[in-house]
Records
---
Amino acid sequence: MSRIELIGVSGVALDPEHWPLLRSCAAIVASGRHRSLAAGLPQEMIDIAPVAAMLNRVEAVLSSGGDVVVLASGDPLFYGIGRRLIDRFGPEQLTIRPALSALQLACARFCIPWDDLALLSFHGREIDNFPGRILRHRQAMLCTDGRSSPDRVAAELLGALTACEDTERINGIRIRVAENLGLADERLTSGTLAEIAACSFGPLNMMLVEQPFSPTPLPLGLCEDEIVHSRGLITKDEVRAATLHRLRLPATGVFWDIGGGSGAVSLEAARLCPELTIRTVEKKAEEQANIRANIRRFGTYSIRLVCGEAPEALAGLPAPARVFIGGSGQRLEAIIEEAVDRLADGGRIVLNAVRVQSETIALTCFARLGLRVAASTIAVSRWRIPGGDPRKFNPITLITGDKR
């Protein structure tokens, strides 16, 4: 059976034992910067990109009885072409000869252990939530590229931290960048967020973001007295838990929290689903300050505060998979209409109604707009044991609308 020899390349030369494989194969797959390693050989050269065309050509060569050598950077199983080749041709048709990965090289240059690093790949991905993905980790190593470059990442982190007045993290975070590892123009750069944001980098690099403290762990169950809020205006613990259950938050995607108040629901959502992109809309300056304080306290930078009043403040936000309406300021019908219009198919809206009028408007609007509707009422009572009379809170009706 014809075979694929997948060879990892570290540095600017091939190992001597690789040359017999190249000389005996029918075709060589290589990127532009690896083509020179096989210069002078008569074999067919196949560009590694576009990947789909490369895979089809490799299949044709194998079908004709020839072997194929694939040259790839570092360890091809570390965010490399190895996965695609295994998926297409199966492990039995491949022999994999890895070199040092970019992660190993970067950690060696920085002299840090990597067994406890958070590893995030932004290479070839469109990322809209750098702060939320990165700042929940004490140490995070990033695989970046020309689009998600270290300067852009640093600038977005700095912007998010500045918006929340988080001077502690701004002053404490240090960044190190290992650029063009193993090549003649290898470069190591270190600095603050502002210093890295002002630099420019090539497309091949690893970026280490370090915080001098550990962010808060991410279980469910914040208590009201742990969350900064004003005059008792906060979704009660029991209602918050039921609301999150009703939301059935996805691991990724976009969540709108409209009328965020203290941001309690957003905080729990960010802790439960740290890769979820959260937009918390709040019009009151006092509550905006509370939300910022809570983001700082819990390091939940997947939350982005939107200062303004719905529905106008919803314009320009990414389309949501989930929406929570905790406050409406007498504009409930317009908010629901805008949210339903922007909601993805299969998405869900949850509304907590305290007043009968809000409940009636929500039920009528949801039905009129074609949502599948469910509702339940929660009446919370608390008491201390031993002794103490129950403290009763106003009933809350949870209304759920599913977009079919």
Note: The first strand starts at residue 4 and ends at 9.
---
Amino acid sequence: MIHFRAGSQIHRLISVLSVAGEYPVHSLYILGNERMYKELVRKLTERQTIRNQQTNQDFTPAKVLNVAGKGASKTIRLYKGAIPILSWLNAEEYYLNTFWSHKFPGDAAHRERNHRVAETAAMFMNAGFEFRQYLLPELQNDRMLHIVPQTPSFYAGKALKRVGSAEMSKTIFTRIAGAAFAGGACYAVYNTRGAAMKWCGMGEFKSLHSLIETCRLNAGIGTVDSAILFGESYDVALATLNETERNHRLEMRFDAIYRHIFFVPLSAAGVRQLDLFTVPDWREKILDALFERESRSFDRGVFEYDACVDGRYILSHLDGDIARLIRFKEAISNMRVETEVICFGEQIEFLKEYFGEKVRLSVIERDAIEEAIGLERREVFEEK
């Protein structure tokens, strides 16, 4: 017998499936202990009795999960006979309406899109964001209302497309995975997985414009200038930067679309990166913890840096903002000045590759920063 309770492995996996429809086998590590999740999936592909700990209700379908495909395309879906388990989450109606009564298109593009959303939802779940669309207020476009919760939340791309009575054109939000709300700000969310992110220029500008209008009407937020970009590793961040620098059409580069692009790896360190965004005024609190106020630039310097200490121009990369890295590198390329970038340990190899010997790198412990800004330390993967 497998016990279904809040925080359990089966509860977490089914919660993500209720929103994304399917989950990539090779990304089970994002949910927590990969070996334990693989064993859980194996058990759920066989006949099991599932007990709802809240109601003591037992459910014994032929199986709970189906696993299909090979390699990176191997995917986990609910078994049709197990769909009633979603009623324990109040998700059954939402799931059936969203995924065509449990009928999935067989093409790779739809599967890839679902996998992007699944990984994104898992990351936000780990960071304490509400990601279950059926538990979030529905977005609208009729008038200005404060609908979006004050607590951290993530609205998937499907929720953005369905704003209002008519579904938006499918050409909108083709790359965007959704929108995250935290600390009084909104972030467009992308997941490039294992490949360099290639932006589609005017299509992304169109997506941004639509997102700004949605935020204005539903959250009282008038500006969206930031995006969160998920990727499997910092190799993806480096490839994305290199790809961007080769693009000679400046208006098509991602730093022309979003002023700030926060790269977040699909890992435990990435979850802690997301935690930073839940702290109101998190950027100011980090900079106040790092520098004396008299050394701060307050964005008034002749180029983009955070502080000047003993003649050395310093940039903080603790937020993972790769758009600022581009501007900093371009600014110092023809300058004879001492420079420094402050980073976390897992970022240093990526930054060495990107800057070469041009910039001094200094590592700071993540625990120290989290304590300084008042972020409560917790286990990234909480399992009950």
Note: The chain is about 35% helix and 15% strand.
